[in-house]
Automatic annotation (TrEMBL):
<dbReference type="InterPro" id="IPR013815">
    <property type="entry name" value="ATP_grasp_subdomain_1"/>
</dbReference>
<dbReference type="GO" id="GO:0016874">
    <property type="term" value="F:ligase activity"/>
</dbReference>
<dbReference type="InterPro" id="IPR036291">
    <property type="entry name" value="NAD(P)-bd_dom_sf"/>
</dbReference>
<dbReference type="InterPro" id="IPR032875">
    <property type="entry name" value="Succ_CoA_lig_flav_dom"/>
</dbReference>
<dbReference type="GO" id="GO:0005524">
    <property type="term" value="F:ATP binding"/>
</dbReference>
<keyword id="KW-0436">Ligase</keyword>
<dbReference type="Pfam" id="PF13549">
    <property type="entry name" value="ATP-grasp_5"/>
</dbReference>
<feature type="domain" description="CoA-binding">
    <location>
        <begin position="19"/>
        <end position="114"/>
    </location>
</feature>
<dbReference type="GO" id="GO:0006099">
    <property type="term" value="P:tricarboxylic acid cycle"/>
</dbReference>
<dbReference type="InterPro" id="IPR003781">
    <property type="entry name" value="CoA-bd"/>
</dbReference>
<dbReference type="Pfam" id="PF13380">
    <property type="entry name" value="CoA_binding_2"/>
</dbReference>
<dbReference type="InterPro" id="IPR016102">
    <property type="entry name" value="Succinyl-CoA_synth-like"/>
</dbReference>
<protein>
    <submittedName>
        <fullName>Acetate--CoA ligase family protein</fullName>
    </submittedName>
</protein>
<dbReference type="Pfam" id="PF13607">
    <property type="entry name" value="Succ_CoA_lig"/>
</dbReference>
<feature type="compositionally biased region" description="Basic and acidic residues">
    <location>
        <begin position="489"/>
        <end position="523"/>
    </location>
</feature>
<keyword id="KW-0816">Tricarboxylic acid cycle</keyword>
<feature type="region of interest" description="Disordered">
    <location>
        <begin position="483"/>
        <end position="525"/>
    </location>
</feature>
Amino acid sequence: MGIDTSLDGAPDGALDEALFNPRSVALIGATADQAKNNSRVQRLLARAGYAGRIVPVNPGRAEVMGVPAFPDIRAAPGPIDHAFVMVPAAAVPDAIAGCAEKDVRVATIYSAGFAELGEAGRALQERVVAVARAGRVRLLGPNCLGLVNVTDGVPLTINAAVEAEALAPGWLGVVSQSGSMMGALLSRAAARGLGFSRLVSVGNECDLGVGEIAGMLVEDPATRVVLLFLETLRDAPALARAARRAHALGKAVVAYKLGRSDVGRRIAASHTGAMVGADELAATFFRENGILRVETLDGLMELPRLALGRRPPAGNRVSVLTGTGGGAAMVVDRLGLLGDQVVPPPPAMRAELAARGIELSDSPLIDLPMGGGRGQYTTVLTALQRSDHCDAVVAVLGSTARLRPAQVQENILSVYEGGKPVVMFAAPQADAALRLCDEAGIAGFRTPEACADALHAWLNWRAPREVATAPPERLRAAAALLRQAGGHDTPRREGGDSLPRREGGDTLPRREGGDTLPRRESGDTLDEAEACAVFEALGIEGPGSRIVGGPDEVGAVEGPVAAKLLSPDILHKTENGLVRLNLAGAEAVRAAVRDLLATARDRFPAARVRGVLVAPMQRGLLEVILGYRHDPEVGPVVVLGLGGVLAELRRSFVVRLAPVDAATAREMVAALPELRVLDGYRNLPRGDVAALARAVEAMSWLACLGGATVRDAEINPLIVRGEGEGVVAVDGLIALGEAAREEGATP
């Protein structure tokens, strides 16, 4: 059913306690040698005044730092809630086996040398996971620096930054896929006087991952904002559940994610997969699950104060007030590049202020030189907070903020009303002024880039989108066709001829001049006729094509037609010269069929050729590409973009998590600038945008077939006809996923 976004399945309270606040901790690989990292956990626990029982495990020592030690965790007395594993990678399986025998609830594995090193390490990691699962031990890591429960004073970590910084309890929770970045966040927070509740380094995420940990932090009363430092998305459904639960509880989740490259496009079978890269998919995932996303590390640290206790705004309009033009202009310029609306004061406000002796222009930047004189700054700021023309206000201060921090109190805090967000950017380095803002509940920023980054994230923050449903009868019809195409019965297109029969379901048709090919395996690509039959079952009109096996089967031809080779092994027929258009008369079609079959045998001798599709030429106002993909990171998505042979070059598209409802489908159509011509732009003919939106919605229903039944699907082009005339799928592609067998394709 796509991403599971229910609020059910609350985190395991016993696991949460064992992970963050254990009554007893075994340190497997403990040492008293201060020069070794393995000694740091015990030192930190002692310094924090940990009230639980510490059990050092070291076969060569009777005691470690004055605490009795044991040669093996199996020999340790009493129950143990949490084990911190610091032995070489090869010894980890036995250490986890010992944890299982002692009924340890959770083990954190600091040891490296697993999946991060390649296949051999991955095999060892899988062995560790198998041992843990058999013994019902949950794992954090491996290759992680551990965690810190700041609220309760439990530092189960080897991170040197925890030893260097004085940790202050606070309302920020952190989950990081990079252990070293935890240290960076700690140092920046210390400089700003910010405090944390819990911090977790997840490492390789062989078991406990970002999503499940975030779910625990969301339920933690001390945590009010959850920060995520991500390199990839490994368990999107769990993270989606956590983010939606956070929204329900009035908490915010803020993400900083690396990996904005196009590497993920290399393995895509469809144009759709090539168009939409990992970063666009991640941005969609964050937005539609109510996660705020920042692009700077400073933004990650400074946005939480802005989001704390607030709900997503109604719009993305911001007003900027300054007494120093240059610093504010940098913020305004950055916001403009990000696509946010920096709005001028409305005429009514200007008139009201003019009556009080304050003259403002209609510029988007409200500049009061040198503060505008006594009381002007506070008067204008009060008016901006009370006006409904903007959703947030940026108050910019100049050098006086550094020389006289009390100016923050005079100009901003004294009139802050606490409803509409007011954020402060101090152009100089003004740490004391920023601290005053933090204490008063106002977000303060050190750089114009971080200010614009965080404000953009908040202005574009939206509540999680409701997950759509699909008509059961449509799903049943599509699922049946997919089962048949996956190696079972032969599907029959609605209103058309049956597709070539596969004898007994075990073999595919013989190619002309070739041997019988083996039965299709799950993960293969459907041919165009099979794909279009599935799309028709979902409610998208097909091209009305028929299959001919050779020139002698052409028969009568009415009107101009198109002829295309039919093969599941040749995905992009136009690029490979396997399409003939505007054919008039039976003789022209027979010649084209003969030529297409010969070309395929010559250029693609191993391809499975099932004949030639002959279909009436379709005309319309515009060609679009409509795609679906079950992405390995974010799950199912639906994509709408400009179609035809230039689809990948133009890279103009809109992507949403699938399935979508009718309203979201219409919003996707409206969001693509090039499709505005369909609204009658400059007296051009109006297109059937309603039918296009219905097709987008129907394509997204593939997400409801269960698991990864369909890996990729695409209609390119989907021709949009005139208003009231519908849309037609001219070419189609479906690549099956691993769940494409009968049991996996049942809705």
